[in-house]
């Protein structure tokens, strides 16, 4: 039952602490800074009625040292401290490559592959048209082969990264299948 962080993202976290003060008995002084950067310290005053606060606008993949100082006019409370590390920034796929295109299939690959991605969804459908199909790909893989396509057709391919945090980021590319053999 002490100062701790929840809801950590790449740019924010929520701090929660036990109720030590009331509105009447004082306020909290909250100090936070990136570890190892004494100059980066920021201080906030928080009403004694509060037991949580969201800090935002933070740098990704950074450890913050946080100190909560109860400024009471009744009792002395020792400062509570904690360290919180923000998550890596969630990057959308920056490249979608189409290769090994044939009349009935092509390969879709993407980069970068990130630990924070749980799975990828590959949505593909002919242009123009609205008959898209969906493939689910494990987050450890960075390519898949799309099959059973129509020859000489342009497809819109959208790769969506589904992050463990629940967020989604997408990137699209166009792919053309080859002309089929005569007599197909």
From TrEMBL:
State the SMART domains in the record: FN3
Domain Fibronectin type-III stretches = 1-90, 92-180
Q: Does the keyword Magnesium apply?
A: no
PROSITE patterns tied to this protein:
FN3 (PS50853)
Keywords, sorted A to Z: Glycoprotein, Repeat, Secreted, Signal
Query: InterPro entries in the record, alphabetically?
Result: ECM_Regulatory_Proteins (IPR050991), FN3_dom (IPR003961), FN3_sf (IPR036116), Ig-like_fold (IPR013783)
Subcellular location per UniProt equals:
Secreted, Extracellular space
CDD domains per UniProt: FN3
Where does the source fall among the domains of life?
Eukaryota
Q: Which GO terms describe its cellular component?
A: extracellular region
> Keyword Glycoprotein on this protein?
yes
Which PANTHER family does this entry report, sorted A to Z? FIBRONECTIN TYPE-III DOMAIN-CONTAINING PROTEIN (PTHR46708:SF2), TENASCIN (PTHR46708)
The protein here is known as VWA1 protein
Q: What organism does the UniProt record list as the source?
A: Sylvietta virens (Green crombec)
Q: What is the phylogenetic placement of the source species in the record?
A: Eukaryota, Metazoa, Chordata, Craniata, Vertebrata
Q: Which gene encodes it?
A: Vwa1
